[in-house]
Amino acid sequence: MELNPGNRKVYLRPGATDLRKSINTLSVIVESNMKKDPYSESLYLFCNKKKDKLKMLYWDKSGFCLWQKRLEESKFPWPNTEEEVNEIPVERFHWLLRNRFFQRAQETKIQEFRLKELTNVSYRL
What are phi and psi of 39, to 5 degrees? Predict the structure, then answer.
């Protein structure tokens, strides 16, 4: 299933959130901690301490929707500090959901490793 936020703003809550929380408590976090309106047409993202689970809360004019994603091998690139609420571009939202950020990071690590192998080669004459 493809999620398309359209013109909606996407906000993430930095740091870890206890994802045992559900719609009521997460909407209170949006309102009290993030200082946003949970009834707006925005998407609100939360991540757990291990950074392998993500929950998204949004209002769709008839009620709240709660969506969850769990990664099997990767981690979400989530800010640890309890700084201000971050609005993220829609492109980064799609990267989070499609796991493309992690594929690029793994490719970079592989390339760096291969480069180190090549530069540490000693030749015998």
Answer: -90, 5
N- to C-terminal Cα separation, the chain: 59
Gyration radius (Cα) of the chain, Å = 19
Give pLDDT tens digits along the chain (125 positions).
Answer: 456 667 789 999 999 999 999 999 999 999 999 999 999 999 999 999 999 999 999 999 899 999 999 988 888 888 877 766 688 888 888 887 776 554 444 444 444 444 445 445 444 44
- Among residues 43, 48, 33, 37, which one has the least CA distance to residue 82? 33
Helix (H) / strand (E) element for 88: namely: strand 86-88
**pTM beyond 0.85:** no
Buried b (16+ CB within 10 A) or exposed e, 44-73: bbbbbeeeebbbbbbbeeeeeeeeebeeee
Are the CB atoms for 89 and 96 separated by under 8 Å?
no
